[in-house]
Amino acid sequence: MHYWISTNDPPRLLGAVMQHYQGGGAFISLEGGLAESGLDQLDGAVDSEMPPLLRNTAAPRMDFVAAPLSPSNVAKIVDAVAKHDLLSEDGPLIHVQIAVGERLVFGAYDSFSPNCTFADGIPLARLADMQANGLITEYAARDA
Question: What's the domain range around 104?
């Protein structure tokens, strides 16, 4: 099921979603001002698009990193987000996508904007738990 998600805590939500999808062939892409973050050093990182993980901003061209969503990379991303304040209100991380195979299962665009953040494949019970724990403020079914 596809859901729109709203959050007041993008770093915690990203951490939880990455943990949900880590391993099993999942990949993540990160786009924005990432030059000082060290995210280009993730295990298996590439700076090119790999469908369905595509750039979402044509101009100005931003830094782009795609990498396997391994437990090691999840830990490195969580550390980089905290250390470099990547997801603060004016933080440099603009777009995040997670794919399993050729299917996007999570997208957070425009700095986790409520109308631009979705999840596909997270069980409803997990979303309810995320809401109860303050990771998301609300979620609503959306058309595929």
Answer: 2-141
